[in-house]
């Protein structure tokens, strides 16, 4: 078997591979965690190995499935729910909770493992890559055609013609095949930004939507998918990183995004007016994606 640190850094291509790596991490964590502090429903775990202290990213106690057997049970249910969504069967609130908890546990297990086993800069990159892969896998599982796409935007300079590469994490399509290309975007497809947090990235989403629409010369649906907006503060506290006021200013004066979805929404996401724009990820894959792809 591949060592855990190497497995965490490997590309994951299907939901079973995500289930397997999560199982490994959940078995590994109890052996290396030495201390924990609870702050506002989040736990900050500490590991002290060979004189070196490492901190795990804040874990939401209401979402994270700590026990391997609990995760395995929910993971089986998750795959059944995917089949229900794919066949247009209704999904109840308990099943939506299962979606959010299981996917959150998968991603945060990967994050925790990388925090403990991989150098910080490399860990940060792999956490983001695994999250993009996880979201892509989910849409594939529920039968939504999708593709990563880099839009090539030409512009003129004193040195001649150059190209700006606008990377879109995911394109969701109602067609049998993604119609958007490196030079154009299909108006009926949805551009998706997939990021672990909105910190330092919020403004870029709004600017990208404006840029894309001006380049392709038609309205373009753009949504954001985030893991969470919480980070460790000092060694034993947390802080929320969503700049909610700025989000509303951008929404009013720049452009409106077509939805923001979280696996672990920050507190403000449930309050008006933010709740008009922000929802749990389970709402996207059980209902909203159909609206986005048909309007």
Global geometry: globular
End-to-end C-alpha gap = 47 Å
Q: By helix and strand content, what is the structural category?
A: alpha/beta
**Number of discrete helical segments:** 8
Helix and strand pattern: HHEEEEHHHEEEHEEEHEEH
> Taking all residues together, what is the mean pLDDT?
95
Number of E strands:
12
Uncertain segments are none
| Strand-residue proportion | 25-35%
Q: Major sheet, described briefly?
A: 6 strands, mixed
Question: Short summary of the structure?
Answer:
The protein is an alpha/beta fold. The protein has 8 helices and 12 strands.
Please describe the topology of this protein.
Layout: H1 4-8, H2 15-32, E1 35-39, E2 42-49, E3 52-55, E4 59-60, H3 68-86, H4 93-117, H5 120-141, E5 145-157, E6 160-173, E7 190-195, H6 202-216, E8 221-228, E9 230-233, E10 237-240, H7 244-253, E11 260-264, E12 278-280, H8 281-292
Parallel strand pairs: 7-8, 8-11, 11-12
Antiparallel strand pairs: 1-2, 2-3, 2-4, 5-6, 6-7, 9-10
Helix pairs in contact: 2-3, 2-4, 3-4, 4-5, 4-8
Describe this structure in words.
- The protein has 295 residues and is of the alpha/beta class.
- It folds into 2 domains: 4-140, no CATH class; 145-292, no CATH class.
- It has 8 helices and 12 strands.
- The protein has a 6-stranded mixed sheet, with helices on both faces.
- Helix 2 packs antiparallel against helix 3 (68-86) and helix 4 runs antiparallel to helix 5 (120-141).
- The longest helix has 25 residues, at 93-117.
- It is globular and about 55 Å long.
- The chain starts with a helix and ends with a helix.
- The relative contact order is 0.12.
- The model has no long low-confidence stretch (mean pLDDT 95).
